[in-house]
Fold:
Amino acid sequence: MTSANASVNLDKINLLDYDRKGLQAFFVEMGEKPFRATQLLKWIYQEGVEDFDQMTNLSKTLRAWLQDHCCIKAPEIVAEQKASDGTYKWVMQMSCGNRVETVYIPEEKRGTLCVSSQVGCALACTFCSTARQGFNRNLTVAEIIGQLYVAQNRLGPQQKITNVVMMGMGEPLLNFDNVVTAMNLMMDDFCYGLSKRRVTVSTSGVVPAMRRLHDVCDVSVAVSLHAATDELRDVLVPINQKYPLRELMAACRDYAKQGPRKHITFEYVMLDGINDSERDAKALIRLLSHVPSKVNLIPFNPFPQTDYRCSKPETILRFRDILHNAGIVTTIRKTRGDDIDAACGQLVGQVQDKSRRHLKLQRAGVQHVA
Ligand code: SAH
Structure:
């Protein structure tokens, strides 16, 4: 599960940091043909070969040069947990002692990997425990694509990762260049070849970056909305003070016009007594009336030192029905079983919540396997 070259010296160039365009430029600069890039990508991502000497369609001289100057260094799995429903949660060791979580959720027709983009998070969403850790640093391209690389190698060919959601730790659009490069690799036919409909970036609403995304990377977008008025969203998702709903909705409308799914998915965490009333649902319907939307209601996952509570199951169902009746496709994020508590347990992997993780994993049927 670890790179064979994991212990190489740090001065070497990590080839996981480059997408196809980057590798082509890299090879041209050293006097090689650009098609070396696709050969190398296939070896790494499709053949799982990390030893340059085994890359037999590269010349001997090139192989020796790569051996001396380059490495393939992915994050390392330092803990693994497997739930009874097949969900995996991995703690991945990055450089400088940083660790992030990656989650794999198997379903009947797809396997979804939830990938982190930063160590910690600079945004201060009040209901999110990652926010409590503050921001440490951006992940590199190698550390982002490396989560997919390591996870797919670990799962093996029987369990294909078909979907990626950038919904782990961090705000992906605040690590724009690295996230875009990593997503390009995910969608590249010479790497994982995932369809652009199956790669989703989730954002708290960094409007200028959403607009830039349009131009460089055609992926699906999910927006963490959580409130339908500026007054409440300013509190729950403070970046709203900088990019208020009017600007966010305009950016969503524009993205939906060109985006691969022709709609935006809005995530809405269900907080008891805060954003879950009939009035809130109606405000949400009004807000979304000009944007092709789907809504994903997320039962709040509590953590220590939070005053928020998850909405009652019947409140969530009523909220969903109100949206449904207004013609908005609305789902409730959940595990296989349809009980709401299990859905809350499912979200453990998305928030760094060390102290109660143990208890919640037990409740969700997670056992230690490593
Ligand atoms: N920063 C990005 C992606 C990371 S969070 C974003 O904001 O979209 C992925 C999703 O989990 C977001 O919708 C986030 O709001 C939600 N989330 C965070 N903490 C949560 C919690 N305690 N319970 C339920 N959902 C939570």
Observations:
- The two ends are 13 Å apart (CA to CA).
- The first strand starts at residue 13 and ends at 14.
